[in-house]
Structures are given as C-alpha cells and as structure tokens.
Design a protein that fits this description.
Structural class of chain A: alpha/beta
Shape of chain B: globular
Oligomer: heterodimer
Largest sheet of chain A: 7 strands, mixed
Order of helices and strands of chain B: HHHHEEEHHHHEHHH
CATH class of the largest domain in chain A: Alpha Beta
Number of domains of chain A: 2
Structural class of chain B: mainly alpha
Strand content of chain B: under 5%
Strand order of the largest sheet of chain B: 1-4
Number of strands of chain B: 4
Strand content of chain A: 15-25%
Mean pLDDT of chain B: 89
Distance between the termini of chain B: 59 Å
Low-confidence stretches of chain A: 23-27
Low-confidence stretches of chain B: none
Helix content of chain B: over 70%
Strand order of the largest sheet of chain A: 7-6-8-9-10-13-14
Distance between the termini of chain A: 91 Å
Amino acid sequence: MRKMTIRIVAALAVLTMLFAILAGCSGRNDDVITIGVLAPLSGTETYYGKDMLQSYQLAVDEINKAGGVLGKELVLYEADDGADPNMATQAASKIISRGVDFVVGGYASGAIIPTMQLFYDENLLLLISCANSTDITKQGLEQSFMINSPGTHAVVTLAELCRAVDAKKVALIHQGDAYTKNLSDLCESELPRSGFEIATVEIMEKGAADVSAIVTRIRNSGADFVYWCGYHADGSNVIKQLRRGGYAGEIAVGDGSASVELIKACGADGEGVYVTSPPFVEFAEGGDAFVDAYKRMHGMDPGTYATLSYDTIYLLKEAIERAGGIETERVREEVQASEYQGLSGLISFTPDREPAVSNFIILQIRGDKFRLVTLD
Amino acid sequence: MSTWELILQQGVNGLILGSFYALVALGYSMVYGIIKLLNFAHGDIYMTGAFVCLSVFGALSRFLSGWPAVACSIVAAMFLAAALGFLAQRFAYRPLLGAPRLSLLITAIGVSLVIYNTVMVITNSQPLFFSSGLDSSAGIKIGGLTVTYIQMVLLAVSALVMLGLSLFIGHTKTGRAMRAIALDQDTCRLMGINVNKVIGLTFMLGSALAAIAGGLACVYYGNVQYNMGYTIGIKAFTAAVIGGIGSIPGAMLGGLLLGLLEATGTQLLDSSWKDVFAFGILILMLIVRPNGLLGKTEIERM
C-alpha cells in the first residue's frame, strides 16, 4: 500500500515537472522578435562566424536604436555550429527549443544543409547569409533563402577572368566537402562550355600539410590557370607550394579563401593571386560609414561576409514591416518579393530562392592589399 | 615534364613527406618498444614543437634571422618538447606502468586531448603563419625537376638525425640499456639498470625528434595549427607498424615508404585515391608480413 502511494506521488511529481518544462518553453515574450543565429563560433572557421555574428549585432543594434521593428525590439540568440554537420544539428535544436521567430546564419554549406529540414519542420524562416552551395536550394524547402550568390555566379565571373588573362587549361583543386566540391563540379561542367579545357581536378584533404605531389601533377598536366575552391587556411599552403614547386601560371581562389588572412599567410608567394570574391565592404558603395560603425562597436575591422550578414537583418526587417507581423507565411512571401538595395548590392530572389543578381567581384593581391579588378 | 622528370619529382616529394612521417614514427616506435605503449599524444608533441619553434623564432627575430634563427628555434622546440614528453611520462604514464595495458592507452588519449585542447584555447583555434624570410623557391632546377635548398636541408637534417639516433641506440651504454629494457624490464632492474630513468630518457628523445619534425614543418610549410598533429600522428603510427613497431630502422623505412606510396598514388590514380592506394598496398604488406617489414616475431613467454 505504501509502495503504491510512493509511486503515485512520484508519478505526480514527474508530471508536474513536465508541465513546468512545457510551460517554460511556451513562455514567449511578445514584445521582442527573437532571431536565432547559426554560425561557426569555434573551430577553424571561427573568424567568419564571429564576423557574421558581429555584423548581425550591428544591424540589430541600429534597428533597435531607431525604434525596432513594428515597435518590437530585435533580440539575437546565437548557437555555435562549428562549421560541422553534427554540431550544426545540435545547435539548430538549441535554437528551436528556445522558441525563436526567425533564423539567420549558415557559413559552411555542409553544416547548414542538415539543419534545414529541422527548421522547416518547425515552420521557421531561414535566411542563409554566407553558405552558397547550390545543394542548399536543391533541398526544395520554400522557407530557406540564400542571400549569398551561389557557385554558379562565381563560375560566370571566373570564366570572365580566365578570358581576360588568356588562360587555356584550368586545374581545379577542392577539399572534398559539400561547398568546395560543389564549386569544383560547377567549374568542371561550366568552364568547358566557355571554351576552357579542364586540365585536372585534384583533392586536398583538409589540414594536409604537404601538397607537393598534387603540385607536380598539376605542372605535368600543362595547366596555365589554377583555381583553388577551398578555404584560406589550406589555400595559402597550396599557393606557396605551387610557387615553390615551379608552377608559373595564374592562380585564382574562390570565395572561401577571400580573406585578408590569405594575404598574410601567403607572404610574397601571394603576389598576383586573383580572388572571385563576395562583396568586400571596402569596395562597396557607402561602405565607409559601415566600417566606422563596425569598428566602433567591435573594435576590429569587418570581414569578408560582413556586408551580406548586415544586409540579411535589414532585408528581414523590411519584409517583416511589409508583412505587418511575424507570421512565417506572410514574411516568407515578402522576402520572396524583396528588392532590397543593400551594401552588397541589389538583393532579390529567383523562384528557387537563390539570389537573382550576382554579387561576385574580382580582387587581386597586390603587395599587402586586395585591389579591385575591373574587366572590360 | 618527361616521364623520368616526373618520376624523380614525385620521388623527391615522397621523400620529403616520408621524412616527416619517419621522424614522428621513430618516437612511436621507441616508446612502444620499451613499454609497449601506443603514445597517442605523440602527434600533439609534434604540433607543440611547431608552435614553440614559431614563437621562439618570433622572439629571436630582433637578434637573429635566416638559418641561425631557424636552428636556434628548432633546438629550443626540442628541449621544450623533451620536457613535455618527460612530464607526460612522469605524471601520466609512470604511475600506470603496472596497470592493465588498456588503462595506459586511455591515459595516452587523455594526454593527447589535454595538449590538443590547451593549444586550441591558447591560439583561439586560429592558424598561425610562419615566414622564415628564407628564399623558399631558390634551388636547383634540372629540366622540369625542381629541388629547393630548403628541401635539401630538410632531407639532410632528417638523414643526420636518424643516423645519429641509430648510432646512439646501437653504440652507447644508454642505448644498450634501452634495448635491454625492451627485452625484459624485470631482469634489467635486477641487473642494476635504472629502468625509470631510461624510460624517461626514451620519452624525451622521442619527443625531441617529433619537435624537430614539427619545427621543420613550421619552416617548410609555414602554417601552424592546433590540429596539425592529428593526421601526421595517424600516418606516422601507420609507418611505425609497417616498419615493424619497436624497430628503429623499421620506423624510418616505414615512414619513407608511406611518403613515397602517397606520392605514387597521387600521380598514378588521383589525389582523391592516394590514401586508398597507399593503404591498400600497406594492408597487402601486412598480410604477407604481419609483424611489419623489420619487426621480429614476438613469442609470448608464459
């Protein structure tokens, strides 16, 4: 009999706790709009993740000071995806359980893709600021928008560059993950259509120190243009070893390596290297005011994806205002219809929710700086 | 490039890569030979060596530059890595020498994670870039074959270090003590050999070798990152097993062989298949010679 009583009491206690937890979850604050941020805040891509978060913070801070959105304050809630698929799904669950209204972020495509279905299931709108693999929109989830130009836009810009430097045989190097392989595959299928031969496609494992065997293979393939599709930490290594290994042709790197860190890391070997780059703020119209505000708030220079991240928040703000509320479906329609003129240029979307206008620019390393290259 | 130039160039590439593997593999093999421990922290000691080399070089840059500065930095890295190896041995491994082998193994993984994460936090997981100021593309060009001076120095240093180690193990009293302990620890103790001291020395020596490799990697590749020891740790461990773990010439042979196989695989098949090629051949080798190329058949005494 006593046992029975204990059991009932225990069961009641458990139920009460469950109710308490559930009540806690649904306890939303209606005076604020919470935006979940999914970005790599640890690991090798921390530099970019921090830059994204700081740009979001700057935009949110400005908007709140100007009275918020529809009279409500914007609040960010960040979770670290570590640019890693496993960490990203955990981070997504953390954001979802917090009960956010919208989600922004996404640096590595490989990390954001597995989270998309999770957000979709919760009917959350997802604006992906940086990740730009075309695999993202292939998921076919109508609540996920890509802000950054996908690799297809990069390839168009790359082909223009190849023509300008009179390249004939292009060697591609990627790192085997979703983003870099996607970019390499696009080049492999699209460049021949513009009349360029693909000399060879190579893979460099992430963090591998020695690429001399690949360099020898590239030299032997007769390539006169090498396009590095990977990230800057390994990219500097590839560039240095290409030059040391006696490769004398042109080198270009993709947007994953578009960072001033690349210049520092390459040293003298970086001279003349081209970058198919996302819109760097110092080359953007009205960028100076942004740089000043960013420096004042964070005490450092904005990075590669600062403009895109900053624009993401403003695009969302305008869509919410036009929708007149935060109901997902209404805001989604307004985002789809956006014609937002931001720091990174005009942002509008194709029916597939990819950017309709390319935002890629071509930069070249000259001394210790990037220089904007304009092709005729 | 002609076929011969291609073969020679990939041979040089493979030898360079193989020298790094061999230097790190030596430490694995020595430690395993003497206390039957797979020292998983060894790759992290290599990484620490690279960081120390970079920092010392930076600190010295006011007074020294070029090769003298590089040499001083690597020597400093050797001493610090030796100290780190000794500390790990003294405080993490020695208390467990009598414990089951598995506990020792887990401790090694623990030591590895401690070093790895400490460096990760200190460097904020950012890669650091090293610029030695040496002309990295100066060298000898014969037709399409390029060998830089840095590559030559690198090969010479690793050859000298390996030769020195062989002489030390084969021809000194301490070297003889190491070989004796590998055979039978208890008898050595009865014969009056200070076993603990020799084990400590083995760790210091192995760690110093890894630090030489780390320092050379820092100079040659120029990128230093907290996770740089992971891949090379696994590859060097493989090299040690292929050569016959516990065997010093085996570790050198295994390292060079693995480097050459990777370069061959890259050239013959594709860079994505190089590990499949290299490890496929290694599996075949192990099937034919399960104790490795120079390993001795071990008979468990009851």
